[in-house]
């Protein structure tokens, strides 16, 4: 029996774009993409325009000055203290949070019995839902006084490292305390993302290690961590982004000062976001422009950090496991 | 050194479900034994009990005895990790470590077992890759990732990785089912060479393959879906494929079911 297949070119279904559903969806998704670009461009233009207005009036070097007095005659303001405080507190937060988060994620994904893993994952989620002002209040009322003991211990035994040398008295309203608080705040996002990545490690990679006689830790080292590497970096960058930009918690805990000090336990210092929050309300038009200029620097730092992360991930792409 | 496997009264469970029931068999050293049977008959599960991989599955549980020469793999003092270092395994889908180079893939098991000098490692890696008939194809790119090889080459890389640690037994779980016919032929030739040195057990869905590579063939079957799989018979491959003693085996082999 001879059968004839219907000619394909007559089928309207073959030309996807001509169907109304596809057209609408194409328009929606294209529109969303364009909107994103427009918003990003608008933010960049706004920041740059206002920042240029301010910086052109600044009587000192904007990047290296440790003083903030845009209302002065002539105006004197610079971001050295803010950049230092932001970067240092974020580094402290990352140093504490990333290993702990990887540990929790591994425990939930590979060690904990299922009965324990679920509630634990839920608690971590809850941690992410706490508003940052609550963290700030908790930090100021609980963490600051109770860190006194730790600070003293660090000062006594690690003081020779300079950074843990506490040179002034006073409560722990320091960059170190802020770093610890930020670590707690970014812990859930890093934990959640890395946990998801660890759960996606293909069974066959883990079995490959197991069948060679790897212990559980060796399986994690040979299969899970290498596979999750780019995920860990992405997760850390998400956390870092939050730490860099965190405002309220820092503003509540830190006792701001415009001095750069390597003694991390000493009270004082400042961050971009904290400084903007603290000064914005009382600033005049020009003062606000100056604050926006500092915001632009934060924006650039965040972009650089993200770029660096992408570069690290991309550098070893052929080993990433995506090809397997 | 190749060792004899002696299984007696072995049952395996997934939670409450009994997957294989009361299997006893002997596998001779330096021979190839093929497991055949319809899907779900438990031949892969049984294979995985031979290196204690079955209990890695959540709910996985084993009863019975597996003697490797005179050591019970399920003895109370036996560490499953140590078992897996002496019973190597090759999986259905090639699974080289994607983040490691070809060299590191082959050296992975050695590095788990202890400290080797760089020169020793290079020597063993070369010997293992030669043993897996892969050396000539990869000797110029040992530092490239293993995932860049073709499927057949990846599977031979996995075999090289498994034999690098000189296991007593080599288990293969449908090692060719993801490969094209030419790669399959390469692996089958390799199995013929490897049996000089190792005890080899291979699960296959391909009966021609079982007939080509194995000395002995075991036929597994299950009474119905949900019932545990059983060993129906184990005999010389020639006999299984020409004149099996059980009717079900003949039905399966001649394509009447399964």
Task: Report on this structure.
The complex is a heterodimer of chains A (324) and B (258). With 324 residues, chain A is an all-alpha fold. Chain A contains 10 helices and 2 strands, in the order αββααααααααα. Chain A has a two-stranded antiparallel ribbon with strand order 1-2. In chain A, helix 2 runs parallel beside helix 5, helix 2 packs antiparallel against helix 7 and helix 9 packs antiparallel against helix 10. The model of chain A has no long low-confidence stretch (mean pLDDT 88). By secondary structure, chain B is α/β, with parallel strands linked by helices. Chain B has a domain of 179 residues: P-loop containing nucleotide triphosphate hydrolases (Rossmann fold, 3-Layer(aba) Sandwich), CATH 3.40.50.300. In chain B, the strands form 2 sheets. Chain B has a 6-stranded mixed sheet with strand order 6-7-8-3-9-10, with helices on both faces. In chain B, strands 2-1-4-5 form a 4-stranded antiparallel sheet, covered by helices on one side. In chain B, a hairpin with a 2-residue loop joins strand 4 and strand 5. In chain B, helix 3 runs parallel beside helix 6, helix 4 packs across helix 6 and helix 6 packs parallel to helix 7. At the A-B interface, helix 6 and helix 7 of A face helix 2, helix 3 and helix 6 of B.
